[in-house]
Specification:
alpha+beta; Phosphorylase Kinase, domain 1; Transferase(Phosphotransferase), domain 1; 4 domains; eight-stranded antiparallel β-sheet; 11 helices; globular
Length: 443
């Protein structure tokens, strides 16, 4: 028989379905199939009726979708139900348990990774099915780079920056990836940048902190795998002359990583009362997206100086600031662009009206600019599109139009032009890849 219970696991409610006999002990497996130990996150009850007792290859549920994915060691199938898309992966039991735990850990810390939904453990087969929710509006690296020039330029640079940032986020949280690669990553456009998300944590290990040796080894794996991924794509596209460039580009990820790591962990020596130097350092970290949780001044440096150490949090500085001001939930660089737009509009209003706005600036921007514009965009973007990213694309489109015209063309003209193009976005099927917003402006 099966029993159902709801438990509080790692701070989140889970529905667990266990195969037990009347005394609560494990039931004898049947000659055909036995129901596994099933753990589902709260809100995933639509998955209860699936064929969990069978190996994934034998499932015949309606709703399976073919998705363009890279190579995988294990069977992965995609299931659409109730407007959501789930990835189901069958793998060895111990591997699945480790991956489930690692993904839950990353989610608790707010780090960029896919969200795990459930785990069906079948000890009699020594396998398990891991369920994650497919990352909306995301692209795999092949699809992303086949839509844009692969050679040197702002777009490829942003992809490599995203890989370096992802590894730094993981290492700061004590997570050793072990299989860092483009193929194990999904990408989302985040304003004028790209955000990388971990999607495969089979080899991941969670530690209180990582040694320099562990970080170097993980970084070596990343550089090697990125070189392979870029070279493989160049060969696939018949651009054999780009193979050496692919290796050089991959090696640049190491330089990006090391430069950012140094910025985050440097301990400058300052005069004890130099508040300006401290504020300058905090602003630099804020510009990178980090909030500062603690400021420490340690005596003992030469000439009466002190060493400054800043404890930083995850990269959500602008996102949290925007949400506090407006209630809009956005990615970090989307939020940075929206805050710039808000501040520019508020400054224009103060000049136009000849008086300070006080605290009313955000509400007036929401009422007069953001909400009316996103309502118009939503008619083209559709319910599954990223409306915040569409607004950021519109801002980029307006900037490019203004550059060509040599003057500010105004928001209305930009909206009309952008809508006429179909509000293009490369992550949407049929997106107009030739439009100005396809490639973000160079940094």
């Amino acid at each position: 028989m099966t029993t159902t219970r709801v438990e509080e696991v790692e701070g989140l409610a889970e529905l667990q379905i266990l195969d037990t006999d009347g005394n609560g002990s494990a039931a004898e497996s049947s000659a055909t199939a036995r129901f596994p130990r099933l753990r589902l996150r709260q809100g995933a009850s639509e998955l209860l009726g699936l064929s969990w007792e069978l190996p994934l290859a034998r499932w015949h549920e309606d709703g399976f979708r073919e998705m363009q994915v890279g190579p995988s060691r294990h069977l992965v199938r995609f299931l659409a139900t109730d407007g959501r898309l789930f990835a189901l992966k069958e793998e060895p039991l111990e591997t699945a348990q480790r991956e489930f735990a690692a993904l839950r850990h990353l989610e608790e810390l707010g780090l960029p990774a896919v969200s795990t939904i459930g785990l069906a453990e079948a000890p009699d087969r020594d396998t398990a099915i891991l369920v994650t929710e497919y990352l909306a509006n995301s692209l795999q690296y092949r699809r992303l780079l086949m839509r844009f020039p692969l050679g040197p330029g702002s777009y490829r640079d942003r992809l490599l920056d995203a890989m370096a940032w992802l590894l730094i986020d993981l290492h700061r949280a004590g997570v050793y990836w072990g299989d860092c690669s483009l193929a194990n990553t999904l990408f989302r456009r985040d304003g004028d940048k790209i955000q990388a998300y971990l999607v495969d944590a089979e080899t991941s290990e969670v530690h209180p902190s990582l040694s320099d040796g562990q970080r170097r080894n993980d970084l070596d794996i990343l550089v090697e795998n990125v070189a392979f991924g870029l070279a493989d794509l160049a060969a696939y596209q018949g651009r054999l002359e780009d193979l050496d460039a692919a290796i050089e580009a991959a090696e640049s990820v190491r330089e990006r990583y090391e430069l950012l790591w140094e910025k985050l962990h440097e301990t400058p020596e300052l005069r004890p009362h130099d508040r300006h130097a401290i504020e300058k350092r905090i602003r630099k970290l804020n510009d990178l997206g980090f909030s500062v949780d603690e400021v420490a001044l340690e005596p003992g440096a030469p000439d009466g100086l002190v060493r400054l150490t800043l404890a930083v949090t995850t990269r959500l500085f602008h996102a949290r600031h925007l949400e506090r001001k407006t209630g809009i939930v956005a990615m970090e660089n989307q939020a940075r662009l929206l805050l710039n737009d808000l501040h520019e509009y508020a400054a224009w209003l103060e000049w136009f009206e000849g008086r300070p706005l006080g605290t009313t600036g955000p509400e007036r921007w929401l009422r007069d600019v953001f909400r009316p514009t996103t309502q118009r965009l939503a008619e083209v973007v559709g319910p599954d599109g990223d409306i915040v990213q569409a607004y950021c694309d519109l801002l980029e489109h307006k900037w490019l139009m203004s550059e060509r015209a040599g003057r500010d063309v105004g928001l209305e003209a930009a909206i009309e032009s952008y809508l006429a193009l179909g509000a293009p976005a490369p992550e949407r099927p049929g997106g107009n890849e030739e439009s100005p917003v396809s490639a973000p402006a160079a940094s």
